[in-house]
Design brief:
The complex is a heterodimer. Chain A is about 30% helix and about 20% strand. Chain A is α/β, with parallel strands linked by helices. The termini of chain A are far apart. Chain B has a domain of about 120 residues. Chain B has a six-stranded mixed sheet, with helices on one face. In chain B, strands 5-6 form a two-stranded antiparallel sheet. The chains are: A alpha/beta, B alpha/beta. The interface between A and B is large, with 45 and 57 residues.
C-alpha cells in the first residue's frame, strides 16, 4: 500500500460539534411546536335517555329494588337520593320526610362548616366519596349516577363532583388502583 | 497611560468553544422530547376560558369542538354567540354569565342549534361518502367550558347540542398530575 500516507491526528484537536449543533438547532423549533405543557383529559357524559319505558323483568322477592342514585347540588351541599336504605337506615326516607311539611330535608353531605357553599372548595367531596363507597358496597354492579345541579352551581363544582363519583381515592384496591364507584354520569336538567 | 499594554493581536484563527452550548442544547432537546405530544385537540387561548382540573385520565379524541368561555360561544374556531352578564338575584352586587334572553327560545339557543345541525349534517355526509364505520357519526362533542360558568349556561348549551343530535358529551379538563 505504498503511496498512502497516514497523518497522525494531533490529540489536542477537539471533536467538530458544529454539524450536531446545526441538527439540534433545527430539531428544537420543531419539538417546541409539538410540545404540550398542559395535559388534557375528557370526562364522558350523556344526556338522559328519552324513550318508552322498558318492561321491568319479574324478579324474585329477595331482589333489592333497583338503585336510581341521584345527587342534587345546591349551595347548601349535596343531596343524595335513591340510596336511603344505605345512607338513612334509621328512617328519613321520603314517607317520613312528608310528615315534616314545610321543613326542608338537610343535605346528605353539607358544606364544610355547615355554612352556605360560597366557592367550589367549600363542598365536602371526600365525605361524598365515602358515602358513595357505602352505597357501592351494597350495590357493587351499579355504575350509573344522575346529577341534578342547581342553576347557579359553578361548572368547576360539577367536574369535581364527577371526580368524586367516579373513583374512590381514599380506599385503594389491594393492587394499588382506585376503586371504581359510579363512573357513568348523566347530567339532568336540575331545578331552578 | 504608561504601563498599559495594548492587547496583542491574535493572528491564529481560533474556533469558538461550543461544548457548553452543546450541553445546554442537549438538555433542552431531552426536555422537549419528553413533552412531545400528538394529541388531537388543542385548547383555545382565551383569557376568559379557564378549564377545571380533574382526576380523569381518559384521552381526548377528535370531535366537534364547542368552546364556552366567559364571553362567547365558539364552534370549531368560529364565534357563534356573545354571552352577557346579568345581576345575580341572590348575591346583590355580583353578576352571572348568561345567554341573552333574545337569543334563546326556552332552553334552546337557535343560533347555536343551526351551526351544530350544519356540523352534524356535514359529518353524516362524510360518513356516508366514506362508507367506513370509522367515520360514522356518533354525536360526539367536545365541550371546553370556563370553570366559573354557572350551570344554567351549560344546561342550555347541552340541551341545544342534544337537540342537534349531539348526545355524547366529552368535557375537556386539565389532567391532574
Amino acid at each position: 500500500m505504498a503511496g498512502f500516507k497516514t497523518k497522525r491526528v494531533d490529540s489536542s484537536d477537539e471533536l467538530d460539534l458544529v454539524p450536531i449543533m446545526n441538527l439540534v438547532s433545527i430539531l428544537i423549533p420543531f419539538l417546541l411546536m409539538a410540545a404540550q405543557f398542559v395535559h388534557l383529559a375528557v370526562i364522558d357524559s350523556t344526556l338522559p335517555a328519552i324513550g318508552e319505558p322498558k318492561e321491568v323483568e319479574e324478579k324474585d322477592e329477595d331482589d333489592k329494588p333497583p338503585l336510581v342514585l341521584t345527587i342534587a347540588v345546591t349551595d347548601k351541599g349535596f343531596f343524595v337520593s335513591g340510596a336511603d336504605a344505605v345512607l338513612n337506615p334509621d328512617g328519613g326516607d321520603d314517607e317520613d320526610a312528608g310528615d315534616d311539611e314545610g321543613e326542608e330535608r338537610p343535605p346528605t353531605v353539607p358544606c364544610k362548616g355547615n355554612a352556605v357553599c360560597a366557592n367550589p372548595d367549600a363542598y365536602d367531596y371526600e365525605e361524598l366519596t365515602r358515602k358513595l363507597g357505602l352505597v357501592k358496597d351494597e350495590y357493587p354492579d351499579d355504575e350509573n349516577v344522575i346529577l341534578l345541579p342547581e342553576s347557579r352551581v359553578q361548572y368547576e363544582v360539577l367536574v369535581r363532583l364527577m371526580d368524586a363519583c367516579r373513583e374512590d381515592r381514599i380506599n385503594k384496591n389491594p393492587d394499588g388502583t382506585y376503586r371504581d364507584l359510579f363512573p357513568f354520569v348523566v347530567i339532568a336538567g336540575g331545578a331552578k | 497611560m504608561a504601563g498599559v499594554k495594548t492587547p496583542q493581536r491574535v493572528t491564529k484563527e481560533e474556533a469558538l468553544n461550543i461544548t457548553s452550548m452543546m450541553d445546554l442544547m442537549t438538555i433542552i432537546l431531552v426536555f422537549l422530547l419528553k413533552s412531545y405530544s400528538t394529541q388531537d385537540i388543542s385548547i383555545a387561548g382565551d383569557s376568559d376560558l379557564q378549564l377545571p382540573s380533574s382526576t380523569s385520565t381518559k384521552d381526548p379524541e377528535l370531535a366537534v369542538n364547542l368552546v364556552v368561555s366567559g364571553r362567547q360561544i365558539v364552534v370549531d374556531g368560529v364565534p357563534v354567540l356573545q354571552l352577557t352578564k346579568v345581576p345575580d338575584e341572590e348575591n346583590p352586587g355580583k353578576e352571572l354569565v348568561a345567554v341573552p334572553e333574545d337569543e334563546k327560545k326556552g332552553q334552546l339557543i337557535p343560533t347555536l342549534f343551526d351551526r351544530l345541525t350544519e356540523k352534524a349534517e356535514s359529518a353524516k355526509a362524510i360518513a356516508e361518502a366514506s362508507g367506513s364505520s370509522e367515520h360514522e357519526f356518533k354525536g360526539r362533542i367536545l365541550l371546553q367550558c370556563d370553570k366559573k360558568l354557572p350551570f344554567s349556561v351549560i344546561r342550555e348549551v347541552m340541551y341545544t347540542a342534544g337537540q342537534a343530535q349531539f348526545g355524547e358529551f366529552k368535557f375537556v379538563v386539565y389532567k391532574q398530575e
